[in-house]
Design goal:
The protein is of the alpha/beta class and 122 residues long. It is 43% helix and 19% strand. The chain has five helices and five strands, in the order βαβαβαβαβα. Helix 2 packs parallel to helix 3. The longest helix is centred in the first third of the chain and has 13 residues.
Length: 122
């Protein structure tokens, strides 16, 4: 079973995506902010990480930069999962190493499972 980390401060949305991914056969850990997401990565092995862009403590891009600058986490596939789809934000995230940029309002939980499947190379 593949382990997915979902870093998102919107609890209801995170629960919906967790339910959909769990139904698709993934184990999903939810972190409610950037710091707890980074802490989770230190103590667990994840096959992919989904990061919200806007969080209270640090931006999703800052979490992405931290992950990609660390030797132990730089090769974990990462997708931004957010409601903010400004061209500059998308370009920045992809340039920093995000594998995908998923807009929450355009993705149903089963569509997200398909995107995660390609993210983890299944």
């Amino acid at each position: 079973m593949k382990n997915i980390l979902l870093i998102d401060d919107e609890n209801e949305m995170a629960q919906v995506f967790q339910t959909g991914l769990t139904a698709a056969g993934y184990s999903v850990t939810i972190a409610s902010d950037g710091k707890s997401g980074l802490d989770a990565v230190k103590s667990n092995k994840f096959d992919a990480i989904l990061i919200d862009q806007m969080m209270p403590d640090m931006s999703g891009v800052d979490v992405l930069k931290t992950l990609k600058s660390n030797e132990e986490t730089k090769n974990i596939p990462v997708a931004m999962l957010t409601n903010f789809g400004h061209d500059e934000m998308i370009k920045e995230a992809l340039n920093l190493g995000a594998n995908d940029y998923i807009l929450k309002y355009q993705v149903a939980p089963n569509d997200l499972a398909a995107k995660v499947k390609s993210l983890v190379g299944e």
